[in-house]
Each structure stands twice: as C-alpha cells, then as structure tokens.
Specification:
single chain; mainly alpha; 8 helices; globular
Length: 179
C-alpha cells in the first residue's frame, strides 16, 4: 500500500542523469581556455545554459516523445540554480528574484540559439556567432573571434545530438562530442 508513495519518478531520475552529463560537459576547461569564455559565475552559467539549450532544442523535434523529459530537465536546471545561489550566500529574500532573472535569460538565450542554428547554412555561422557574442561573451570587446570558434562548436554539438536516438536522451543518456 505504501509502495506507491515511495515509487521513484523515472522521468525525474532520467532528467537528473541527463542534467549531470550536461553539467560535466559544461565544466570542461576547454570552454575557458581554448574557446575564451570568461571563467566567471556568469560565464559558467552561460556555458551550462548553452548545453541545456542544445539538448532542449534537440528534444523539441520529437516533442511527443520528449515533453515530460524536457520539463523535468528544465525543472532540474532551475532547482540546481536555486540551490547554487543559496550555497554562494545569496539571501533567501533575493533568491526568487535572481532565479526569475535567470529564467528570463534562459528563455532569451534558448530563442537566440534556436534562431542562430536555424540560420546556419543560409547565412553561414555568423548569426549564431552573433548570438553567442551577445549572450555567452556578453558583448565583450575582442571576443568576436572566440564567438566564431564557439559557433563552430555549437554547430558540431547540435549535429551530434541529432544523431542520438530520442529514447536514449529521454533515458538520461545524454552525451556530447569532444570539444
């Protein structure tokens, strides 16, 4: 009788496993050394958001099979961001406001990266590089070459994620190509 109360949520568990794979990829030193992303809280947030966005954009193409997983992945991201803010000492009164700002930033970046990826081919990688320059590099002077390098990386990752079966991703088996 009590077993139904203690039953594990398989979708949430898969999303947590997928999220951990995304975090591992986003923490790779290559982004801060080879690709020139600022090694700051903002830079790390943006690299994480970029990778979550790549996975969610892949999942959107198979929405019928991935809706629950997509929502669980999104929820996992924001629970983690909330906990991270608390761990670095943001006051309880400010956490909600900061998470709301992060949510707006996330949706803006998701849309910018989607549009940038959709433009690849017809306009080269420049629209994507521009989106990365504005968001990932925050318009930092001199970061234009780095945003072009990152655009190439993002295109390669999006193509790689396209090769993964949707069932594998929604089982939490998220993988990435080497940077």
């Amino acid at each position: 009788m009590f077993s139904k109360f203690f039953k594990r949520d398989e979708v949430a568990d898969a999303a947590a496993a997928g999220y951990q794979a995304i975090v591992q990829q986003a923490r790779r030193a290559d982004f801060y050394t080879r690709y020139g992303v600022p090694d700051t809280l903002d830079g790390r947030f943006d690299v994480l958001v970029l990778h979550v966005a790549l996975v969610l954009l892949r999942l959107q193409r198979d929405r019928a099979e991935s809706d629950l997983f997509s929502q669980a992945l999104f929820d996992t991201l924001f629970v983690d961001l909330d906990q991270s803010l608390r761990e670095i000492g943001v006051s309880d009164m400010s956490v909600g406001k900061k998470v709301k700002q992060m949510g707006k930033a996330f949706y803006g970046r998701l849309d910018a990266y989607r549009l940038g990826l959709e433009a690849v081919g017809s306009d080269g990688e420049q629209p994507l590089a521009d989106a990365l320059y504005r968001n990932l590099f925050r318009g930092e002077t001199g970061a234009e070459p780095a945003s072009g390098l990152m655009a190439g990386y993002v295109v390669r990752q999006a193509a790689y994620l396209d090769t993964l079966p949707i069932a594998k991703i929604t089982a939490g088996e998220v993988t990435f190509a080497a940077p």
